[in-house]
Design a protein that fits this description.
Elements lengths: L1 H18 L10 E2 L4 E4 L2 E5 L12 H14 L7 H5 L3 H13 L3 E5 L2 H12 L5 E5 L4 H10 L2 E5 L4 H11 L6 E6 L11 H10 L3 E5 L25 E5 L9 E5 L1 H10 L1 H4 L6 H16 L1 H17 L9 E7 L1 H13 L2 E2 L2 E2 L9 E6 L6 H13 L5
Parallel strand pairs: 3-12, 5-6, 5-7, 7-8, 8-9
Antiparallel strand pairs: 1-2, 2-3, 4-10, 9-10, 11-14, 13-14
The structure holds pyridoxal-5'-phosphate.
Length: 386
């Protein structure tokens, strides 16, 4: 009886999603080199992956992973604080700190785990967390877990951010301001120089989520290096699963901040360390990002070629949206592109606000300029842009 009501609940929820064109499905996808993916209906050129440098299928990363697995085993066995801290972690954290220009770094099981672990350390029940309204889901989750008061400001609107700080900062003990360095579904950059000034003025700590910045903007060093002069952000989180090509998350910060995190962040303390092979692949990925400027410049160049061809606003990162409005229109456009041989996801609520469903194109160094030209042609022929 009880079991039946549980299933009925799930079925009703799914039907409601279906009616609103919001139901999602898992599709078996085999990722291959040169940004190709295999699906049951054949091979597609993928503009859906966040593997901006093609490192996930790079032979150097595969070999590093294989070697580390043979040497240290598949799983890490425990939390890093128990026995999960295999010898590769030190090397990865040193390289990340160097790349991002911080004193130290700490690696977590994923980017999501990083944010939800870090935010509650610096904000609690009597504090304020100020968040850009388009910030990533993990930031809202971290803010909720912190039990702080959460206030959003209009996307990239520094006047609104100042208004919110002026209205609410004084009522709270500490204040954390959190934003994406690069916005995942819009591809634009946060105005970090202005935000650091605001944070200073209101005695707040700034945290950025650079999941889509590292390896792509600022010469690969991320969004703090993507502005006219380098910006000092004291808490920079990111992922090892996008441009770095592996898996995991990290926070770059000062030595005492990192040490506190290693002691207190629950998703660090109570979750198993990453597999050695994954850490080894990430080391190789970071090494390539730090040394191969030509490869790092490609995703943005490809995205720019696409926005140029279609006379869209200049790409600021590897991500370009074409906003279509309804979820149904976005799904139809995605299906039409798939028939033309391209995998471009339809992004719908709640990932984006209602009425702004869109196609999201992600460019990679693994795309050739011919791939991009062919995509632009298909988009134009389908009447999705001029
Ligand atoms: C992907 C993503 C994350 C989560 O990183 P994972 O390592 O995949 O958990 C966090 N923030 C942003 C902006 C992301 O795009």
């Amino acid at each position: 009886m009880n079991r039946r009501s549980l299933d009925d609940f799930a079925i009703r929820k799914l039907e409601s999603l279906e009616r609103r064109h919001l139901r999602r499905e898992l599709e078996i996808t085999a990722r291959r080199a040169r940004a190709r993916v295999g699906r049951d209906d054949g091979e597609l050129v993928s503009f859906a992956c966040n593997d901006y440098l093609g490192l996930a299928t790079d032979p150097a990363l595969i070999e590093a992973s294989r070697e580390a697995t043979a040497r240290f085993g598949v799983g890490s066995g425990a939390s890093r604080l128990i026995t999960g801290n295999h010898p590769l972690y030190d090397d990865l954290e040193r390289r990340l700190a160097e790349l991002k220009g911080s004193d130290d770094a700490v690696v977590f099981g994923s980017g999501y785990l990083t944010t939800i672990g870090v935010m509650p350390i610096f904000a609690g029940a009597s504090d304020l967390v100020l968040v850009d309204e388009l910030a990533h889901s993990c930031i809202l989750a971290g803010a909720t877990l912190s039990r702080a008061r959460v206030v959003t400001f209009r996307h990239n609107d520094m006047d609104d951010a100042a208004t919110q700080l002026k209205a609410h900062r004084e009522e709270h003990r500490r204040c954390l301001v959190v934003t994406n360095g690069v916005f995942s579904m819009d591809g634009d950059l946060a105005p970090l120089p202005e935000l650091t000034t605001l944070a200073d003025r209101y005695d707040a700590w700034l945290m950025t989520d650079d999941a889509h910045g590292t390896g792509v903007v600022g010469g690969g060093r991320g969004s703090t290096f993507a502005h006219a002069s380098a910006v000092d952000v004291p808490l920079q989180m990111g992922t090892l699963s996008k441009a770095v090509g592996a898996y995991g998350g990290y926070l770059c910060a000062s030595a005492p901040v990192v040490e506190l995190i290693r002691n207190r962040a629950r998703s660090f303390v109570y979750s198993t360390g990453l597999p050695p092979g994954t850490v080894a692949a990430a080391i190789k990925g970071v090494e390539i990002i730090a040394s191969d400027a030509e490869r790092v410049a490609l995703p943005l160049a490809r995205a720019r070629a696409f926005t140029d061809a279609l006379e869209l606003p200049d790409a600021q990162s590897a991500i370009v949206p074409i906003v279509l409005g309804s979820a149904e229109d976005a799904l139809d456009a995605s299906d039409a592109l798939r028939d033309a041989g391209f995998l471009v996801p339809a992004i719908r609520p709640p990932t984006v606000p209602p009425g702004t469903s869109r196609l999201r194109f992600a460019f990679s160094s693994a795309h050739s300029s011919d791939d991009v030209a062919a995509l632009a042609r298909a988009v134009r022929e389908l009447g999705l842009a001029t």
